[in-house]
Specification:
This protein is mostly helical. It has one domain. Helix content is about 75%, strand content about 5%. The radius of gyration is 14 Å and the shape is globular. The two termini are about 15 Å apart.
Amino acid sequence: MTTSLLHWLLASVTIMATAHFVPGFKITGFGSALIASVAIGFVNIFVWPILAILTLPITFLTFGLFLLVVNGIALKIAAALTPGFEITGFMPAVWGSLGLTFIGWVIRFIVFGSRVTPG
């Protein structure tokens, strides 16, 4: 339970940090970041797999690079579901998904050290 709460808080901090670095990726406060992290989690569980399967042929043709587009779409959906979380444009969504991945990895590395696990 404590680990889940810690990961939730770290995901929210990651969203705040990404909003600082990616233009067009806006979050109004930490409360919105908490809600956004839950929304991103739900979209990643329920919507992302459907999008990935539907776009499998083009993903295969682009050697997996189309998954960046799928991640951007999923992030835009999560932003649409969350008050106080806004992504203005598609490229900020793609850069935001990359930023969330990289910044999240760095934050988890700082907090957990070499015990960092994916996800």
